[in-house]
User: Which sequence fits this backbone?
């Protein structure tokens, strides 16, 4: 027997639909969407919905009609099961035949039973005994064993949750580093693993709810910093019931077309989840230069702490007028603004190694965000200054803007996993290129990125660099043949007049080919997700040295002059 159920997912914590645990059903309603209007109307009336206008078969109006019908089904069954009031969210998807329905849960067994009952009533379209069926499944839900409560953690130590499209790993690492400068035992989770006081405890992608659990379980931990990615929120929800500070770095196109998230606005909705569970006495730290991110403060119970590179930004004026705080760049200093006191300079931007003497705009913003979060936690000003000034790209931020000197040219290893990240990488490459030097770039992408994003990266890379090759990420192709990715990258490069784009099986082989071509003053960059460790080992075997903050500063100054 065919069923309308596409997926029943148990979300253990705050999610896109509710600020607490919820059941999410994805339903294929082809039978209802494509039914003749009289049959659709009769189904709704049998459920007790009253006057309805189903609209044309397969239309947006019919989908909206289905939204109303499904919401009514949930409430009818809940009533029959003795559940007095229940929150229900029903959302349409891009495919007109699909809907998502979600409702909060307190006991998993009964909640799953309610989900299955909803599916059973939806599947009964066209049958005559609908009222009897609703009563029957409601009675079954009522008598189902309650089951376990949500495993959402209620932390007893301060928690900072960090999300965003770009910069969340760097920002969370900076905050953790500042926490350690303040003398705290700090645990943090990220896409690279779980760390405690700078030591790797568990390797892997822990940017989901399990990462929060791993961090909070570390003996003696005094501060938790959790990187919170889109995927974890969609698949299981946020792992903690609340945080003390939430940070949103930015929202740009990434992972679109996955998990029902098709637009940047929908992606922003997902990222905003962490701001909605920030404690009222805490701080919601948002990017004032990104309208979608800045708007998140409106739905947060916490006070707003905005960051912007522009001290005259309207976002800063708005937040200060609302009684919040701001961190910006004033006369070259990272500076805190508060309506009730004088501007407070912390340290010069050029003294923050991650900013490359202020060249890397993204990392200036990451530093502003980290300073805001640390001060929002109540960490001392001196610790913020020490943390930012001692945070080294190579030592403290592996895989993000790591620079090497190889003979008389520069090599950069950076994640740069989307268009905005690639633009930022090119900005850095240009900033350290010596007069007459060239930019040599190894492009790459996981296999699950949409074609338009891969093509756009091909165009951006070919336009911005003097030489472009492709280096594949074999462990992240996710079933997609590398030849397919080659064709899409080359299509993008061809759109800006670049036809010579060789392909290599790995990031390492692509880097080796470019290093062989490099001449004095050139900059070689690799978009690296998979081969970071082997790239580092090979470069060192070739006599490369890691650039320290002084070397980086000297390279920027030479390039500028």
Assistant:
């Amino acid at each position: 027997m065919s069923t309308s159920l596409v997926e029943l997912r148990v979300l253990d914590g705050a999610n896109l639909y509710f600020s607490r645990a919820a059941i999410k059903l994805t339903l294929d309603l082809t039978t209802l969407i494509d039914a003749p209007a009289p049959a659709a109307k009769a189904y709704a009336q049998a459920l007790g919905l009253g006057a309805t206008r189903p609209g044309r078969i397969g239309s947006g109006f019919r989908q909206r009609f289905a939204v109303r019908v499904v919401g009514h089904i949930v409430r009818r069954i809940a009533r029959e099961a003795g559940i007095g009031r229940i929150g229900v969210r029903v959302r349409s998807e891009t495919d007109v035949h699909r809907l998502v329905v979600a409702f909060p849960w307190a006991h998993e067994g009964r909640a799953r039973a309610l989900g299955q009952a909803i599916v059973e009533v939806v599947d009964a379209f066209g049958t005559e005994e609908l009222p009897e069926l609703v009563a029957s499944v409601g009675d079954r839900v009522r008598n189902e064993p309650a089951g376990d409560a949500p495993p959402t953690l209620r932390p007893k130590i301060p928690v900072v949750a960090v999300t965003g499209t770009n910069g969340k790993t760097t920002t969370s690492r900076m905050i953790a580093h500042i926490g350690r400068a303040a003398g705290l035992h700090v645990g943090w989770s990220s896409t690279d693993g779980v760390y405690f006081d700078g030591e790797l405890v568990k390797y892997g992608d822990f940017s989901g709810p399990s990462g929060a659990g791993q961090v909070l379980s570390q003996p003696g931990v005094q501060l938790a910093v959790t990187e919170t990615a889109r995927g974890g929120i969609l698949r299981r929800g946020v792992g903690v019931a609340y945080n003390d500070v939430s940070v949103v770095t930015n929202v740009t196109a990434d992972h679109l077309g996955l998990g029902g998230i098709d637009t940047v606005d929908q992606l922003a909705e997902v990222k905003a989840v962490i701001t909605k569970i920030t404690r009222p006495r805490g701080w919601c730290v948002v990017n004032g230069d990104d309208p979608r991110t800045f708007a998140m403060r409106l739905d947060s119970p916490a006070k707003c702490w905005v960051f912007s590179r522009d001290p005259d930004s309207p976002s800063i004026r708005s937040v200060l007028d609302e009684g919040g705080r701001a961190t910006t760049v004033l006369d070259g200093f990272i500076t805190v603004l508060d309506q009730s006191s004088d501007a407070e300079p912390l340290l010069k931007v050029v003294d923050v190694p991650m900013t490359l003497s202020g060249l890397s705009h993204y990392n200036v913003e990451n530093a502003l965000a980290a300073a805001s979060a640390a001060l929002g936690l109540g960490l001392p000003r001196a610790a913020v200054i020490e943390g930012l000034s001692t945070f080294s790209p190579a030592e403290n931020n592996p895989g993000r803007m790591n620079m090497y000197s190889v003979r008389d040219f520069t090599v950069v290893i950076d994640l740069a996993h989307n268009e905005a990240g690639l633009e930022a990488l090119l900005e850095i490459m240009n900033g350290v290129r010596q007069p007459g030097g060239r930019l040599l770039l190894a492009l790459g992408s996981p296999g699950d990125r949409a074609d338009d994003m891969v093509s756009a990266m091909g165009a951006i890379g070919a336009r911005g660099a003097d030489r472009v090759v492709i280096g594949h990420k074999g462990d992240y192709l996710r079933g997609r043949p590398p030849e397919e990715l080659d064709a899409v990258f080359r299509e993008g490069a061809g759109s800006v007049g670049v036809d010579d784009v060789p392909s290599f099986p790995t990031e390492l082989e692509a880097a080796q080919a470019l290093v062989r071509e490099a001449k004095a003053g050139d900059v070689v960059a690799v978009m690296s997700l998979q081969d970071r460790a082997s790239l580092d080992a090979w470069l060192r075997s070739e006599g490369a040295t890691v650039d320290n903050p002084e070397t980086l500063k000297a390279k920027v100054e030479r390039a500028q002059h």
Remarks:
- Residues 60-80 form the longest helix (21 residues).
- The chain has three domains: 5-143, 159-391, 402-560.
- The radius of gyration is 26 Å.
